[in-house]
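Appendix B. Chain record.
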Amino acid sequence: MGILDESCRFRGGAKYVLDDELAKIVDVSMALEMPLLLKGEPGTGKTMLAHAIAESLAMPLIVLNVKSSMKLLDALYQYDTLTRLNDSRFGDSKRDVSNIEEYIRMGKIGQAFVAETRTVLLIDEIDKADADFQDDMLDVLDQMQFDIIEIDKTVCARHRPVIIITSNAKKDLSDPFLGRCNFHHIAFPDPEMMRMILAVHFPDLPERLARASLAAFYRLREFRGVEKKPATRELINWVRALRCDPDFDVSSLDGGELPYLGVLFKKSLDMNLALQQAGRVRK
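Structure tokens predicted for this chain:
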């Protein structure tokens, strides 16, 4: 552990806008060699932060997408017994059937451990996993090693990865888990920050369209009963759709019209609620 030199400090990516506090917690987490746990609603840029760190520091990115049914062993390694069985039956493989190690395939955490260079390891949506998975995973990440039982071998990390863990806060994480991570809550961008994000993606965006689309977007997010509010990704795609339409007139947004709602809302119920409430707003 130690203070990071200037070349290892995170300053954002080409398409990622961040505030000073977030940049500092990334730097501190790397200096302390601790996982950084990011919480926030979908669309706040948690996953994209890992991509931006990898881009900024020129490190490979390895992504572990956590599933509810996932076992920790799946993230460490898999023993491909089916391929070994087929090789032993048909005998047309160049692999040595008697050497089990040839049938060991590294999972995402295993790949980060054996990588030739330091990597960014993104563990996405950890709240989908059960508490045992979470705590056992952090044991492995603390020790930077795990055992492959089938070949009685210990895999030790060549380089400690930069570990980013995301949670959509759908389920509480255990106290031991929280205690072993640095934590940062990414709030949904306010209009000023969102304008900066749009400027990164659309450098030539007319100011009138930016103001009108942002006003409509935040108004839509306030609609009652909507399950999945439109997030940053939807806003960017919506602005892209508006700009691609040669018949679009920005004054229609000022008048309450909301074209291409299907770009912003991905669920039929949310779409219907938005249409109903947008109609009342126009009246």
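Further analysis of this model is presented in Appendix C.
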